[in-house]
Amino acid sequence: MVHHDLYQDNVLIVPRWLTALLKGRFDEHCEEQGHNRKHKNLFCLECRACICKDCDDHANHRLLKIFTHGTGRNQSCAVVKLDNTNELLDCSHIQPRVHNGAQVLFIKQRPQTSYGGNNCERDGCDATLEHHNSFCSIDCKVNHIMSVPSNYRNAKWLLNRVNLP
């Protein structure tokens, strides 16, 4: 099923919820309803907003749990569980990591690592990957597809499988 916002003037665009997720700032404190001491650790798929667990306005909405994954050198990155994300888009060829026993994916381009392997296929990303993966993050996969017009016809492996705003 093709979602209504995948094409505009016959040009493929990224679903609005995915664009909002990729732009999300999960390292900030929530400013809604006096929750300024709570970190934003959820993404509301319906409202396309980064929220904390105490934001009641989203209680009946579909939420995606965001985790913080340490990457060394005092850096941390926002990650999502592979099982939860695979319901929304095809996550093949994105390198998973293990976080608290679960496979997770980096949302945004991840810091460079030092182990051998191939490089991320996104222009400008120097992350090294295990040999069977092509992208270090969801962001890199989306940007790679959108930067190469011939990839548009294969975009079904990127785009959402559920009907979301």
TrEMBL record:
<feature type="domain" description="B box-type">
    <location>
        <begin position="25"/>
        <end position="62"/>
    </location>
</feature>
<dbReference type="GO" id="GO:0008270">
    <property type="term" value="F:zinc ion binding"/>
</dbReference>
<dbReference type="InterPro" id="IPR006734">
    <property type="entry name" value="PLATZ"/>
</dbReference>
<keyword id="KW-0862">Zinc</keyword>
<dbReference type="InterPro" id="IPR000315">
    <property type="entry name" value="Znf_B-box"/>
</dbReference>
<protein>
    <recommendedName>
        <fullName>B box-type domain-containing protein</fullName>
    </recommendedName>
</protein>
<keyword id="KW-0863">Zinc-finger</keyword>
<keyword id="KW-0479">Metal-binding</keyword>
<dbReference type="Pfam" id="PF04640">
    <property type="entry name" value="PLATZ"/>
</dbReference>
